[in-house]
Design a protein that fits this description.
This protein is α/β, with parallel strands linked by helices and 475 residues long. The two termini are 41 Å apart. Helix 2 links the parallel strand 4 and strand 5. The protein is 31% helix and 20% strand. About 1% of the residues have low confidence. It comes from Halogeometricum pallidum JCM 14848. This is Piwi domain-containing protein. GO terms for molecular function: nucleic acid binding.
């Protein structure tokens, strides 16, 4: 390790109700409650729609009932990271309740599910099953008032028919993905959706019921209120953060790819932009990664800045681009020309794996927030996972490995410390989970989930006016 320097970054803080701050999402929610919605109300009543067969709807209602009264951890020991789910209702620390009216339930008949077994072609069976769910979503969402969010509780017999014991959200044919199609059906009805598989309802999932309750509550709250349960405190003002990635379009030329940008403002507000189809170019090291031409890069970055300006009524002072692949010369020139009026710019490659490992002289792994700086400092190795002093735990298995942070050699206006602090902050902004953090920042970490949905032919045919920009439709 000769020539290496090791630094440590303090844990970013989050903002909750009343402007109060905490470093742990769950502790902040329990102590202060989530950030209030824009109407200023102190308690959120989430209108929940339920779709499934008689068993899956009943099992889902049992879970929601358990969440109402609270769920304790298994065993006797309650570590700080193993907090009980507090329960819901008027006096709940989470300041939320569920409203489940019978008119928001759509039951798929057993005869309809049984009829699927007579269809031999897998693609036809999936389409028929999606038609049943589509009919129920449209019916539930056409009520007055309509639900804030619709939970699709996958019937057990349907899951067994399609997955042969795998998770229900892995139902996939050559041309479509089951989960993605359900997400799109929700978008077309202007209602976010949540999928729950039978293994989760039976308690056979890897997550204990208490963890399911925590994550479900946070996700439903975010989707229902169309707003964030917590915000960040430590990002630079008037900065536009964009995570750029690519996906294969299904049902078209297999070499056709499109670009996607997930744009975040310093408040944590975010939206999704889809770019034009691009050409897949093999890189110098034969990784086969996709890169943008100068013209495509310029158009994409101009769209990003225009959408940012629409929301802020101003252009940003700083632009930060996160990407999982290196910046090619053409891409760099296009991004630069499309953002030439932005005063400061940082183009950063973020990769998930590196073989380097650090070991402490204690029984614990490296602290989250540890940064290893090699000689030359062309890239840094940041531990977004590791021992977390705030919860006195390393709640993972195996030895943690850092992510690679590689600033562009020319377009890099900010210190390594500020860049890594921002990445640490963005690792705490996945509102589909109440976990302390994720390994990757959301600017690149949620790319797969969004890409799977946009890859669907149905999504490709959506006109711009009907295209859903908000992340809560995708999660």
């Amino acid at each position: 390790m000769s020539g290496f320097r090791v630094d440590y970054l303090s844990e970013p803080e989050l903002v909750f109700a009343g402007g109060n701050t905490a470093k742990d999402p769950r502790s902040g929610l329990l102590k202060y409650g989530p950030c209030p919605p824009r109407d200023g109300s102190n308690h959120e009543v989430v209108r929940v729609g339920l779709i499934g067969d008689s068993w899956s709807i009943s099992a889902m209602r049992d879970l929601l009932e358990d969440m109402r009264y609270g769920i304790l951890p298994e065993g006797d020991e309650r570590q700080r990271w193993n907090q009980p789910f507090p329960g819901l209702g008027p006096n709940s620390e989470l300041k939320m309740s569920f409203d489940q009216r019978p008119m928001w339930r759509g039951e798929i008949e057993h005869d309809d599910i049984d009829s699927l077994s007579d269809v031999r072609d897998d693609a036809d069976r999936v389409e028929m099953a999606l038609d049943y769910i589509k009919y129920q979503i449209e019916g539930v969402c056409s009520t007055t008032p309509s639900p804030d969010v619709v939970i699709v509780s996958i019937p057990e017999t349907l899951a067994e028919l399609f997955t042969e014991g795998k998770k229900a959200d892995t139902i996939r044919t050559a041309d479509t993905d089951f989960r993605s199609r359900i997400k799109l059906l929700g978008m077309l009805n202007q209602t976010p959706t949540q999928l729950i598989g039978p293994k989760t309802l039976r308690g056979e999932d890897v997550q204990p019921r208490r963890e399911v309750a925590w994550n479900l509550a946070v996700g439903l709250l975010y989707k229902a209120r169309r707003g964030r349960p917590w915000k960040l405190t430590e990002l630079k003002s008037n900065t536009c953060y964009a995570g750029i990635s690519f996906y294969d379009e299904r049902g078209t030329d297999p070499d056709t790819r499109a670009s996607i940008a997930q744009v975040f403002m310093e408040t944590g507000e975010n939206f999704v932009i889809r770019g034009d189809p691009v050409t897949d170019i093999a890189s110098d090291d034969d990784t086969g990664r996709t890169h943008l031409s100068a013209g495509d890069a310029e158009r994409l970055i101009q769209t990003i800045l225009e959408r940012y300006g629409d929301r802020r009524q101003d252009r940003p002072d700083r632009l930060v681009i996160h990407k999982s692949s290196n910046f090619w010369e053409q891409e760099t020139e296009g991004f630069k020309s499309g953002s030439e009026d932005v005063r400061q710019r940082d183009f950063i490659t973020i990769r998930e794996h590196h073989p380097i490992r650090l070991f402490s002289n204690t029984q614990y792994p490296p602290l989250r927030g540890t940064v290893a700086l090699p000689p030359g400092r062309e890239e840094y190795y940041l531990y977004t996972k590791g021992f977390i002093p705030e919860i006195s735990a390393y709640a993972e298995s195996g030895t943690p490995n850092p992510i690679v942070v590689r600033p562009h050699e020319e377009v890099n206006a900010t210190s390594y410390r500020e860049i890594c602090e921002e990445i640490l902050s963005f690792s705490k902004l996945d509102w589909n989970s109440s976990d302390f953090c994720k390994k990757l920042p959301v600017t690149v970490g949620i790319a797969d989930a969004v890409s799977d949905i946009l890859a669907e032919p149905m999504a490709q045919n959506l006109p711009d006016g009907a295209f859903p920009y908000h992340y809560y439709y995708y999660m």
